């Protein structure tokens, strides 16, 4: 029997009725890790402490039927201390008297089987507890052979509709192409693990964006495909929203500058490969700020939305209409053939259509609003080598349309480029002029026409350029206004005038008054200039009565209530307010009343022909009479002849200013004139 025991590969033991070993075969020794000499040591314990109940069960069954075989699962202790899971088959051998002679035990090692079962249980638990969809797929057939609840619920199926019934191609139609699954498996076997995004198909046909983590695994000598699939619909929706916000204007829904630039660059790449042309139209609304200020920002926003809608109807779906910001829009028209002939006329038709449609009234609730637009047109590759240059060219053309009188379109030309470069140079040089104090002031006397005495003077700025010499204000003030530098320049002028007023009022005439020109930009862009001016008045101890602030009719036309408040603040400090170039703009009596003007300055164009044109004389008489009725004093500008002076004096004009009396002069020359004037006043005959 011992030879039979040793010959079998199954672990076996012969034991006596008292439980001691009679014989242990080599397979059992190998299972437990002992040598033959060690195993018969009575101190060795091979039964696991967990076997108490199992041992009791064996004894009870042997009592009932000592000669039947007993099959139970039982744990054993390896020499190293680890647990061995075993299946014990126990048979009793009878002696001559019918008693138990010995026990024959056979043990089958269940350890790996138990581990496999435990792994399967753990895997099942993981499957059921995961929020992600998990699929086990047969690599050879692509059938889904196991899945968790989210896997079938997310796709709209019951579990029995999925297991061994659905293929991967039923969920992902791309895999239905011939050879697609095999190609995919070849790639997966090489990579072992893959991560990608795709769209799964729901039972109802809708697509679900998912992220797939897929692995090629071996389990119990078999290979499987394990796919963990996560629904990323919310993430994709969030990404789409972020992309939408980054690339589209939130108000109008049109592409913004970022998306426009991207599309324009794509169009340029296409043109570079295939020829043709691109047209960029740069549009700026005329008088939009006036509409915004008059009717409020909510209606201004509605106007922009309506403008976007009208623009979109002026071009093809393949073209791009974008909002750059504020009241600026652009249109990209692609795939043009011959710009110089047929398609230039097509662009003109589009531009004319845009101008016409925008000139039609806009209905904003109960208000009817009219606006116009200025359009600049540039072509690629004729006018630019890249998208940035094309933007600049169309922008310059748009500004040319503004200068042309608005409500029109202009094509880009190289002359515009030269003007733009000159403007950039002018801006840079203005910054330098401010830093290096290249400005100075000259003064032109304002004469009392009845007495001929100098009672005031207008301060005028001059720019002494280090290489270009003297630059007139007409050449640089518009650029200073466009860039906002006029605020800094205006602040410098005010400080200089206050300093000079302090000197002349102390030295020559305690009642002397200086006039200061101001720009509309100062009132609209700067909120701090009034505080600075008050500081200068206090610093040099000059009363507000020493100054007259000259404003233009453009300021009166602006409906911003803050401008009226600022003028009132000037007057509360004792300063006078003069309306310059009266008669050349759009002033009305309501504006003059609203802003409480102290002086009107008749524009030189009326003064020029006052002695030869009865109409101009009548207009001047009317202005003087009206102003005096309103308690406003009048200054006539541009007096160059004695006849003009006498005529203006005779119709009651209070003050005069012009080359007849003096050109603008520097401080020393003006002081001499002022001294001479005061000496003359002493000798005036009394009446």
Structural account:
With 687 residues, the chain is an alpha+beta fold. The protein folds into 4 domains: 2-109, PAS domain (Beta-Lactamase); 115-235, Beta-Lactamase, CATH 3.30.450.20; 249-412, Reverse transcriptase/Diguanylate cyclase domain (Alpha-Beta Plaits, 2-Layer Sandwich), CATH 3.30.70.270; 425-682, TIM Barrel, CATH 3.20.20. Helix content is 45%, strand content 26%. It contains 26 helices and 26 strands. The strands form 5 sheets. An 8-stranded mixed beta barrel has the order 18-19-21-22-23-24-25-26, surrounded by 5 helices. α11 (288-295) crosses α12 (297-312), α16 (473-483) packs across α17 and α17 (485-507) runs parallel beside α19. The longest helix has 23 residues, at 414-436. The chain is elongated. The chain starts with a helix and ends in a 5-residue tail after the last helix. The mean pLDDT is 88.
In the CATH hierarchy, the architecture of the largest domain is Alpha-Beta Barrel
Helical percentage: 40-55%
Top CATH class of the largest domain? Alpha Beta
Strand order of the largest sheet: 18-19-21-22-23-24-25-26
Please indicate the count of domains.
4
Summary, kept brief:
The protein is an alpha+beta fold and 687 residues long.
Observed structural traits:
687 residues, alpha+beta, Beta-Lactamase, Alpha-Beta Plaits, 4 domains, 8-stranded mixed β-barrel, 5-stranded antiparallel beta sheet, elongated
């Amino acid at each position: 029997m011992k030879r039979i025991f040793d010959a079998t590969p199954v672990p076996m033991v012969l034991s006596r009725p008292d439980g001691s070993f009679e014989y242990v075969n080599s397979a059992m020794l190998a299972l437990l890790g002992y040598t033959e000499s060690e195993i018969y040591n009575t101190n060795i314990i091979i039964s696991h402490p967990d076997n108490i109940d199992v041992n009791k069960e064996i004894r009870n069954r042997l009592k009932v039927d000592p000669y039947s075989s007993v099959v139970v699962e039982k744990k054993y202790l390896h020499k190293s201390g680890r647990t061995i899971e075993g299946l014990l088959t126990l048979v009793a051998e009878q002696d001559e008297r019918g008693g138990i002679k010995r026990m024959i035990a056979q043990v089958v090692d269940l350890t790996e089987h138990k581990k496999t079962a435990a792994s399967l249980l753990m895997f099942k638990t993981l499957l059921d507890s995961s929020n992600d969809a998990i699929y086990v797929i047969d690599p050879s057939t692509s059938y889904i052979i196991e899945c968790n609840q989210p896997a079938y619920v997310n796709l709209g199926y019951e579990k029995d509709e999925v297991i061994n019934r659905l293929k991967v191609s039923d969920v992902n139609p791309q895999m239905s192409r011939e050879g697609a699954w095999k190609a995919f498996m070849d790639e997966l076997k090489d990579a072992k693990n893959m991560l990608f995004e795709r769209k799964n198909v729901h039972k109802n046909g809708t697509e679900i964006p998912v992220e797939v983590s897929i692995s090629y695994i071996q389990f119990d000598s078999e290979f499987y495909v394990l796919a963990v699939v996560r629904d990323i619909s919310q993430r994709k929706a969030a990404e789409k929203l972020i992309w939408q916000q980054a690339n589209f204007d939130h108000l109008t829904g049109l592409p913004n500058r970022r998306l426009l630039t991207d599309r324009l660059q794509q169009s340029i790449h296409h043109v570079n490969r295939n020829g043709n042309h691109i047209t960029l139209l740069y549009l700026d609304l005329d008088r939009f700020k006036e509409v915004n200020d008059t009717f409020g920002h909510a209606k201004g926003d509605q106007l922009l939305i309506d403008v976007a809608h009208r623009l979109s109807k002026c071009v093809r779906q393949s073209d791009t209409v974008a909002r750059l910001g504020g009241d600026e829009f652009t249109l990209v028209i692609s795939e043009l053939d011959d710009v110089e002939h047929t398609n230039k006329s097509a662009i003109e038709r589009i531009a004319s259509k845009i101008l016409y449609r925008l000139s039609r009234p806009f209905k904003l609730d109960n208000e009817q609003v009219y606006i116009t637009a200025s359009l600049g047109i540039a072509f690629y590759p004729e006018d630019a080598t890249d998208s940035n240059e094309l933007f600049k060219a169309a922008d310059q053309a748009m500004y040319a349309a503004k200068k042309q009188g608005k409500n029109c379109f202009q094509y880009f030309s190289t002359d515009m480029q030269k003007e733009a470069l000159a403007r950039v140079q002018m801006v840079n040089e203005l910054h330098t002029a401010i830093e290096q104090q290249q400005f100075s002031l000259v003064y032109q006397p304002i004469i009392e026409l009845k007495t001929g005495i100098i009672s005031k003077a207008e301060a005028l700025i001059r720019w002494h350029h280090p290489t270009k010499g003297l630059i007139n204000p007409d050449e640089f003030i518009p650029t200073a206004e466009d860039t906002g530098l006029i605020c800094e320049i205006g602040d410098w002028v005010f400080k200089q005038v206050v300093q000079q007023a302090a000197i002349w009022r102390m030295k020559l005439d305690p009642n002397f008054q200086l006039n200061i020109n101001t720009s509309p930009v100062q009132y609209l862009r700067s909120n701090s200039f009034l505080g600075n001016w008050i500081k200068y008045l206090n610093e040099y101890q000059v009363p507000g009565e020493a100054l007259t602030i000259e404003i233009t009719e453009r300021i009166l036309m602006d409906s911003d209530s803050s401008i009226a408040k600022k003028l009132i603040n000037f007057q509360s400090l004792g300063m006078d307010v003069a309306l310059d170039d009266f008669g050349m703009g759009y002033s009305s009596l309501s504006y003059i009343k609203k802003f409480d003007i102290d002086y009107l300055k008749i524009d030189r164009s009326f003064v020029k022909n006052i002695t030869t044109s009865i109409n101009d004389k009548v207009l001047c008489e009317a202005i003087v009479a009206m102003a005096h009725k309103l308690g406003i004093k009048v200054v006539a500008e541009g007096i160059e002849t004695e006849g003009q002076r006498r005529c203006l004096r005779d119709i009651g004009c209070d003050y005069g200013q012009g080359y007849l009396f003096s050109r603008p002069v520097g401080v020393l020359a003006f002081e001499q004139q002022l001294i001479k004037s005061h000496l003359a006043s002493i000798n005036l005959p009394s009446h």
